[in-house]
Amino acid sequence: MQKCCRCVSLQKGVVAIGVLSLICSSLLMVGYGSAAGTLEEHVNACRDGEAKDIMGILPSCEELADTSTLLVARIFVYVQVSVWILFFIFSILLIVGAVKGRSGLLIPWLVLSVVVITVIIWAGVRASLTRRTYDLLACVIASLVCSYCCFVVRAYSRFIKRQALMPIIVPTYPHTRLCCENPYAHAGEIRELPPAYSFKTPTSNYPAKKISLPTGLGVKI
């Protein structure tokens, strides 16, 4: 996969997924937090004969009369609040990891998303057994969307790892210029040293210079 939805880059797609999951997790966190806050009030109201389930997501008073059902409802609500708080935090890490190109920050979101997809599939199975068509359709759509988002994030994580393992190409030069090499000469051609630093052997063109030795008496031989 080279692009997300065949129109934007993987990095932008992961950032968009992070923003979307951030919004969804914040909404669910507030919703289940409100349910957890009103659960005990709803239970006390059911004992008095009046239900106070404002959001309509808590079990009915007849179901809460059973102790095991009440315990399951409490565990479910508090677990949901904890999961969506973690999902909110991991969504922030996902956005930061996508912007900075750090694959390690994408892993927590991927792991928690797999757990959420598993729960959605389990809810879809229960909806199919009880023949709740709309709930089953919602679970199927949610599982497909979450699976595609996980696939995009996983593809971007692999792309970051490939970029990190890519070797750095260092330019090499076939010929190293020496300090005494003619910069305008061809490769391998050495310029002639200056006369002051060159040693010339006596030849016919350059005869050896005769040096007269002093005699100590002021007369040169």
TrEMBL record:
* Taxonomic lineage of the native organism: Eukaryota, Metazoa, Ecdysozoa, Arthropoda, Crustacea
Q: What is this protein called?
A: DUF7027 domain-containing protein
What's in the keyword line of the UniProt record? Membrane, Transmembrane, Transmembrane helix
TM annotation in the entry: 12-32, 75-99, 106-125, 137-156
Q: Which PANTHER family match?
A: LP21121P-RELATED, PASIFLORA 1, ISOFORM A-RELATED
- The species this protein belongs to is Halocaridina rubra (Hawaiian red shrimp)
Is Transmembrane helix among this UniProt entry's keywords?
yes
| Keyword Transmembrane listed | yes
Source superkingdom: Eukaryota
Q: Where in the numbering of this chain does the DUF7027 domain appear?
A: 73-127
